[in-house]
Amino acid sequence: MEKQAVISAKHLKKAFGKGESMQVIYSDLNIDIYKGDFTVIMGSSGAGKSTLMYSLSGMDKPDGGEIDFDGTDITKLNNDKLAVFRRRQCGFVFQQIYLIEKMNLMDNVIAAGVLTSKDREGIKNRAKELFSLVNIPENTWRKTSSQISGGEAQRAGIVRAVINSPNVLFADEPTGALNSANSGAVLDVFSSLYENGQSIVMVTHDKKSALRGNRILYIKDGKIYGECDLGKYEPDHSERTEKLDRFIKEMGW
Amino acid sequence: MVRLKKLSTLIIHNLKKAKGQYVSFGVFICLTAFIINIALMLAFQTFHAYGSLFEELDTADINVIIPQMQDDDALLTEVEGIDGVSFAEKHEGVFKPVTVREFADSDFDMNTVFYDLDEKRTLNRLKVTESSTKGDASVYIPVFMKELGGFAEGGSITYSIDGKDHTYLISGTVLEMQYGNYGTGMIGGYFPKAVYEEFAREYEEQVIAEYSLKTTEGADLHAIKNAISDMFKEKGITILKSNDRDTVKQTRTMVCTLLIVIFLALAAIILVVSIFLSNFRIRSAIEGELAQMGVLKAIGYTGNMIIAATVMPYVLTGVMATVSGIALSYAVLPFVAGILAIQSGFSYTPVFDSTAFLIVILVLTLAILLFSYLSAGKIHRLEPINAIRGITGEEAAGQNILLFIVSFGIMVLLSFAGTLLYNVSIKPDHFMNTLSEELPSVIFTAEDEKMSELKEILENDSRVMLVMEYASVPVSYEDGNLTAFVCEDFSKATNDICYEGRSPVKENEIAVGNAIADGFPIGEKIELTVGGRSADYTVTGYIQSVNNAGMVCQLTSKGYEKIGEKANSVNVYLYQKNAAAFIKEYEETCGAVIKSSVNFEQLSENGQKLYAGIVSAIVVILFVISVLMVLLVMYVIIHSMISRRRQEFGIYKAIGYTNRQLTVKTALGFLPAVAAASVISAIAGLWYLPAINNITFSMIGAVKNHFQVSVLILIVFAIMFIAAAFAISVLLSAPIKKITAYSLLRE
């Protein structure tokens, strides 16, 4: 069956700075993100992985090009329309987690949920389901991010990201600030969501994280330098690991 | 429009996370609302209560007093026929200058009209509060005398008239709107019928006829007074005294007007500080929570939604604090009204005023909404990804600028309070000179033809600094009556009340009061009349008089003698304050040349006491507010700073800094802005304080004030302020102790 592109970006341009200090990140980048895929974007530091992901999600504006996100050219939207677009179409998971400080986990999730639904009770019930799904016990829901572990906070961050059932879930180095045990639990959540049909775009330079994806894109010299289809994730599947190793080696990792 | 329901979680979260900040902001707004509401209530209710009482007691718009012996029965009809007069009524009384013994523990001189309390009257009706104590020799005294003089129902009062003491039992008080207080230049005394008749028999020659007039709506009071003056002049009738509703009202509500001006100015300063504070707090919050705002934008909150969630806690706090401030003001208003009653001579019970309530709520809410929205406006421009990465693209919030502005504002308040204190309590002559004319120690009236002899004796007395012929006499001009200050040589006068041009030097010159200055440009002529004799005088300048509401003029002694009899009174200025003993000695040794004497030193002290109490209350309020403001501002700034620099303090501790070192270092960090603002404000005070004083006193009719700005006071206040700000910063920096290097590792 032919894959359906949920995001299709053409001729993207992005640069930082001006004049002599200008640093071109990409000048003519084309990329498609497919519905139901767990797409992983890899690349060396400074290659523009996060910049690309934030452009595709409407968090940042490219300097040129078009981004068709589910039928809408989001490069034409103003800031407020982009905000409305994001609340309906995107979920975000950040490396630094960024739960709202001093606000408990449940309220953090509700603060996102109320943007698309007036049914506060409905949001709460869905939040409870999602908390259970990511293994956050009930006695933690009323705690703030400073009172729980980094892994729990990141899993709560994922619940906040998916509370509005986004079209695409974007994750920027979601395990970058976590220890090994917590990373595994967070990645399990991503895998579980992917299995349930959630489209995911993850930026990472961590092989363990990348192994969770089914499609690996490597960004280099301002373009998608290579692509690797890993297929469905299975724990302890050595063939996938070797395939990924070969791919990133080819890419010059 | 942003739907607030969607934002409730965020708004409640914002409120919870910075409770202390909102409480401090709320205290400021509460204070502002408290002061504005008091000012508005005074403005609305004092004047409304005054107007209501004026109407309730059917007070006359104009009162004219003439000797009864010059009165005739047909006069009332003729007066009623004057254009603009709707109703006229005649009352009888006895008009005498009297000395009230033991008035606030001293003798108090005032022109008094004694009336028959039982006389039927339609106009100038009296509201009598009876005491249970009655006697054969009873008197009812005006509220003003009870409040300021310290007399009580059931006690006694002694009037000294031409050297003879008359003691009466105080059987009640009288609330009236005709005279009211000392500033009106006249006061009433009210006897039961039998007592009055006996008194009138004793002072038969001083019995007067008082014509009280009601005017038609919109009638020109000056024109009517002028018509009466012309009519009486034609008939050879002397007007002993006259007054009208406008001048009496201005005099009786003078302190109220002063309080309103001071309170409104104070409220404006506090409001500006509150706005700067909320602005600072919002900018600090944006800076400190940049990443979180970026995340909010990332998950779909629009700029307007985040701004609304940021602004709403301020608006909610503001509304609650405003309502609390207004409620609090109602608890204090009866006390303020009580203080005012001392000067105004009438009291009222403040009641809830919906107009004032709405104005305070609307003004403060709109100000908070507008300025907090403007402060939060930059949230609009934040790109979510830049915000998450900590890039604002703008300068950091100006903590030192805020501190400088707030310190400057507080120093303005303190300097004003200090200047008031200095000129009212430490150098009271400055204040009294602003409100009155000359401030001699003693006024002697010489027996006929004995003036030269008395002056010679006084001039040879080593205790006497200055002797000057000076008198206050009534004169008429085309539009009514003026009080003329007659002096042999105004260059000798100790209080220069001339605010433009100069005092008269030649016998055909005159300086006129501020109330009629507009009608008589300098160089123009004005005709004055006394008892049928008239003369023209050329205007040389303008003088002020708060007590006589500007209806005054200055004439040289020779100038006055062109129309009136030589005034036989002389002002005596002593080196030492010892007027009572001096008068006693002179009355014993020079009784043959002295007709009467006035202890003006005592009078001035009485007057000063009246205002010093009110000014002291204002100064205490200003001090308390200033200290509160310093405390709250420093709290907000230090709290924000500690939150922002938590990591930095942890690092300092990790490398070995002690709590004490960090606390002092933090407090010292605020000193440059506070010290610079205090010093600049103190220096600028030399310029702005006279301007503030001029504006304040011009509101009560004192175009020129004699206030001095004491450099020493400004320096002392600046040092006190810097020291207080430092001490408060050290105290408020205490939470630094709670930051541990270990906590950073956990973060």
Give a written overview of the molecule.
The complex is a heterodimer of chains A (253) and B (747). Chain A is α/β, with parallel strands linked by helices and 253 residues long. Chain A has one domain: 3-Layer(aba) Sandwich (Rossmann fold). Chain A contains 8 helices and 10 strands. Chain A has helices spanning 49-56, 79-89, 105-113, 120-133, 150-162, 180-195, 207-210, 238-250; strands at 5-16, 23-34, 38-42, 64-69, 72-73, 90-93, 168-172, 199-203, 215-220, 223-229. In chain A, helix 3 packs across helix 4. Chain B is an alpha+beta fold and 747 residues long. Helix content of chain B is 53%, strand content 20%. In chain B, helix 2 (19-56) runs antiparallel to helix 19 (600-644). Chain A binds chain B through residues 54, 59-61, 79-80, 83-84, 86-88, 90-92, 94, 96, 98, 100-103, 107, 110-112, 114-116, 118, 160-161, 164, and chain B through 5-6, 8-10, 13, 16-17, 289, 291-292, 294-305, 380, 383-385, 388.
List its salient traits.
heterodimer; A: 253 residues; alpha/beta; Rossmann fold; six-stranded mixed sheet; B: 747 residues; alpha+beta; 4 domains; 23 helices; 53% helix; elongated
